[in-house]
Amino acid sequence: MHLGGELFKSVTGVQLISVPYKGEQLMITDMLGGQLEIAIVSSQAAGTLLKSGRVKVLATMAGTRSNALPDVPTVSESGYPGFHVNTWAGLFVTSATPSTVVEKIHAAAAAAVKARTLRKRCILMGLPPWATARRNSGN
Which domain holds residue 137? Predict the structure, then answer.
């Protein structure tokens, strides 16, 4: 989110001050409490906040509208064509993790991404669908 905010500042010319937080929830608490005027949060948090009626979501940074926020325009649609920020998540273990454990984690992750209920929930939260879990040996 931080780098997305920096890109937003660069492209739009908007002057924002980046305030580092040890978690999204702390930032949201400060925004709702009036200590921040604007926050860049995940689509999951934005959807929850929007439903609460306590904030207005101005735009999403993704290249296309979010399934979770279909009425919210993208930054690109809001006057900055071509602007988009993609994020990703991963599972990590230390390099000392035994390969048998890595294989078990990979198998569980691969099964999870194939589970229809998880895919549906993620799409409703605004996360894009994925194809499969991939294992990176880290070499």
Answer: 89-139
